[in-house]
Design a protein that fits this description.
It is a single chain. The protein is α/β, with parallel strands linked by helices. It has one domain (2-64, 97-252, 276-317): TIM Barrel. Helix content is 46%, strand content 14%. It has helices at 11-14, 20-28, 66-70, 73-80, 83-90, 95-110, 126-131, 138-152, 176-185, 197-201, 210-221, 241-249, 258-272, 281-290, 304-317, and strands at residues 2-9, 34-39, 54-58, 116-120, 160-164, 191-196, 230-234, 294-297. α9 (176-185) links the parallel β5 (160-164) and β6. α8 packs parallel to α9 (176-185) and α11 (210-221) runs parallel beside α14 (281-290). The mean pLDDT is 96.
Length: 318
């Protein structure tokens, strides 16, 4: 099992380290094997990220893309407000724009020679994020994601393609039939699952403790005949069920431009999915039970000191 930490090509992460050697010493001090890298468009001016440090690469993520992909123009306009905004988000007005964005992202990923890449199988319109009343089904989003991936990958690239679950329509992991359907439809020869523990917790708003969360994850995964499809885990937790239930009764009003509505939801999403350390005996037993090839401590932190504190909390609990 390779253990990693996540890092984003963004100033908020990059400014924490003085040099490539500083970053390498940092992650190795926690017994980690490397990094899972997410590209957000910031240039790595200090040359912090070397290919030998990168084990995995997280592909870009469009929160809402299915309406454009499927030609549901009324929903496109409801979500983005104008074709100008669509072009701003996707670089175009059609499927080819979505594919072009992913192809550019993949071209960048290849420079790091990752062992795996991660792709989110999910879709949700802004108005549905809080209400959790969705117009698209798991089947629709999963099938469209398979079509998209089959357009992107026509041969073995030398890395694994790992599909990540969210709590929005698509791959949630709560329905094995959808998971197996997706794996069957994606033609890439080395496709598996990147299980995100926090995202799976969000499918059950009754959870209140880490022990309850670990038991719930185990119960969901027990529905699968073959857990070897889970090649990696994004390991973190957020016990936000009470907050989610309260917000559903009094959802924030989304008005203005797409950018303004997105900003209004940003604080909500950080509270729902804050990516805190998942620790304790039940969490460690979960790791042993699933036994993934890749384990990523995927944390959201404000600075290096907070990240170091979280990592020490994880180490103390092992």
């Amino acid at each position: 099992m390779k253990r990693m930490m996540n890092i984003c090509l963004h100033y908020s992460d990059l400014d924490r380290y003085e040099s490539r050697e500083d970053l390498r010493r940092y992650y190795r001090s926690f017994g980690l094997d490397g990094l899972e890298l997410l590209d957000s468009g910031t240039k790595d001016e200090k040359g912090l990220i070397a290919p030998e440090d990168v084990v995995g690469f997280h592909l870009r993520f469009f929160p809402c893309w299915y309406c454009l992909w499927s030609g549901d123009i009324p929903s496109v306009m409801e979500e983005f407000g104008s074709w100008e905004e669509v072009e701003k988000q996707f670089g175009g007005r059609d499927r080819e724009a979505i594919l072009r964005g992913f192809r550019e992202n993949l071209e960048f990923a290849r420079k790091f020679r990752p062992e795996y890449v991660v792709f989110h199988v999910s879709d949700d319109l802004l108005v549905e994020v809080v209400s959790r009343k969705h117009r698209y089904t798991d089947e629709e989003v999963a099938d469209a994601a398979a079509d998209l991936l089959n357009s992107l990958f026509t041969e073995d690239e030398g890395f694994e393609l790992l599909l990540e679950n969210l709590w929005w329509p698509g791959l949630t992991m709560t329905r094995p039939e959808i998971t197996y359907r997706l794996l069957e439809k994606v033609k890439y020869p080395r496709t598996g699952i990147m299980l995100d523990t926090g995202h799976l917790m969000h499918t059950n708003t009754s959870l209140r403790t880490q022990e309850e969360a670990a038991a719930y994850i185990r119960e969901v995964l027990s529905r699968y005949e073959d857990r070897s499809i889970i090649r990696g885990m994004h390991f973190h937790q957020t016990l936000s069920g009470a907050f989610v239930e309260k917000q559903k009764k009094h959802p924030p009003k989304l008005t203005g431009t797409y950018f303004e509505k997105s900003c209004a939801l940003a604080g909500y999403l950080l509270q729902v999915d804050s990516h805190h350390p998942f620790t304790g005996p039940a969490a460690e037993e979960l790791i042993r039970w699933i036994d993934p090839e890749y384990l990523v401590y995927e944390l959201l932190t404000t600075d290096r000191a907070e990240h170091e504190s979280f990592m020490k909390e994880i180490l103390a609990a092992r």
